[in-house]
Amino acid sequence: MKLLNVDTIEEVQKKLKSYFQTASAQIEMVPLRQSVGRYLGEDIFSDVDMPQFRRSVVDGYAVLAKDTFGVSDSMPVFLEVAGTVDMGKACDIVLEPGQAVYVPTGGMLPQGSDSMVMIEYIEKLDEKTIAVYKPAAPNSKIMNPGDDFRKNEILFSKGHRIAAKDIGLLAAVGKAEVPVLRKPKMSILSTGDEIIEISEIPKPGEIRDINSSAVAAFAEKTGVDVRSVAIVEDSYEKLRIAVEEALKESDLVVLSGGSSAGAKDMTAEIIDSLGEPGVITHGIAMKPGKPTIIGVLAQKAQDSAEGINCQNHCCKLVVGLPGHPMAAIIVYEVVVSSFIKQYYFHHKEEPITVTAAITENIHAGEGRETYQLVSLKRDDALQWIAEPIHAKSGSISQLMLADGFVRIPSLSEGIDAKSRVEVVLF
Amino acid sequence: MKLLNVDTIEEVQKKLKSYFQTASAQIEMVPLRQSVGRYLGEDIFSDVDMPQFRRSVVDGYAVLAKDTFGVSDSMPVFLEVAGTVDMGKACDIVLEPGQAVYVPTGGMLPQGSDSMVMIEYIEKLDEKTIAVYKPAAPNSKIMNPGDDFRKNEILFSKGHRIAAKDIGLLAAVGKAEVPVLRKPKMSILSTGDEIIEISEIPKPGEIRDINSSAVAAFAEKTGVDVRSVAIVEDSYEKLRIAVEEALKESDLVVLSGGSSAGAKDMTAEIIDSLGEPGVITHGIAMKPGKPTIIGVLAQKAQDSAEGINCQNHCCKLVVGLPGHPMAAIIVYEVVVSSFIKQYYFHHKEEPITVTAAITENIHAGEGRETYQLVSLKRDDALQWIAEPIHAKSGSISQLMLADGFVRIPSLSEGIDAKSRVEVVLF
Q1: Which residues form the MoaB/Mog domain (chains A, B) (predicted)?
Q2: Are A157 and A132 in contact (CB under 8 A)?
């Protein structure tokens, strides 16, 4: 067994960065609506001015603004109706001074006009004449070409995670299909002789496979393609074969369970037996999450899973998560998920956090970053308060109460009750 | 054309409630991991005590606590090793005073023991004897049956939206498949002669179909099954046939576009021609979003789309959204989405909002609730500030900058700069 040199999270990130830098993820095209939740594979530029043409934003008459200067309810101006603009059609009318042209919302303004008068301020006298009762300033109630954005403007950067609110803009610039980064593939292996399938009824000593589904759900939330989830017996040979097989089809292999010291040693030995450099981190200075093993295995390019384009070689990540469900999830979110976002998705955007007053003191871990689960509630003044969730280390039910977590740096003196904290939402 | 009696949002909700109360959504079973984002179709109860058995949370020896009272580094107690517990197996050893049994993390404690001593505080003298250097309190380092939750405890309520963090607990209680509410089916029709497919290059006067994809993305985010998205010409007969067809396969039909007054009238006429009660709201007192049309059509049960189980009749919703993209999205989120969550998903949970200081005064609309898009930023003290997004009404690019919106009640005097607001996140 290797010496238990526990790494800080920063040290882990630095080590990972040194191995995972030569590969670049491949791009695939997906239909626009299926792109929600995916990460952009390239920068997105506009292919048109928006709007492309001078457009009315109201129903009314296009006019030359100076024809309407000085008019009022009691003193209208009379204009000649020179025509009507059809929706979706180019307008070939040229408006002369003293004329007006009917334009519906979204319609194209005729040449020579410079503003719109809303239908409410118009009286139609006959087929050829209207009275205008309100003056229009030049450029009022219209959008000029490029008012919204210009052709070749950058709208989204590579690595941006596409949200529902982005779909309209992608549609506006013609992205019926969107270039997104391929999802890395992950296999999750649940180890332990006590672990049974979720659908089974546990006998004394047995426990259902909680962690692998929980981790899979968090991985899928990050945008990972979880290929397989399997329970493996706690035997060196069986586990080694399972990890080897998983590495063939996946970019990442996550081992869940095996809380005991012996199981951890076995996991580390198996990782080391499968390639170089093997285990790079045997324990992380975080609380919870200390018994985390991280291994890196360099593969020849041709062995790598489809989806990652290696230059010289590909590295694959093997992570042995802590056995306790809450610790496994926190390590996944803090270490694995942020690695995946950075390395596979080129994603740099910070999540929105909620500022809240913490209800109790939280102690800093000795030399370890502490991640405290909290649930958010409103106080009487409708401000957010964060209540720490206290749970025995084997508890699973408490995770569902958590809205997120608070990070307490290892060198701090902890957090005093009532002070403001940033809650990272799940 | 009907009189433009504009309804408040509360009036709209009240009207909808009066029509949509007899139906109850059907339940379908989905595999556990696919249940993320779905709404529970029934309450979920635990089927086991968790843990089911007295379980160690450390690697070490099960002992009788009082055998260790008073021991110290310099004065250990010597205990006889009575055996080893295997993971996943029931333990049939009965521990006698003066004995200890090895139990790995997660293993079952033998009868007669009442606490665990961690391996760090043990010295193994020979195969049959250990020295214990630290006293154990009764119940230390163990979980008793039901410590986490008890059998038949309610864990989740019907209508709860399943999150990634819930998957572990659902696994723990054996939900390999989860009962969820069927998704309502929605058709989205984009109307307007100026609208072209996203993949086309717009000619002067034309515009790509922005709204229907944007609305579809928001609908899918809510959990709706968007069946079809189509562009329909601005003709009474064609639009009427399209709505009629859409009603056959969908529970909800959304019409997008048709900003002009004439197009709105046509939409209302078509809804009225298709059944009773027809248009129930012709304009909502909200800003943006006033030109919204809401129609309800009562259907016989056998005509209704699969998925909704009607008692006497089914009502279907037809919504004509405003033409401007941002207005369409705000109306969808504030009116349609909240209706869907309430009626189809029995979902009552409030979203988490972010409290922020607004950077500018926002005026209340005269007699209309105002929804102001904002983007969130950090100030120097790392507090959230909300910057109102000012955009011409036809703008689409500004929506992507928005992190959410702030609601200003119609009867308020607006919001002063620097005051705190609640931002509903997109």
Answers
A1: 187-342
A2: no
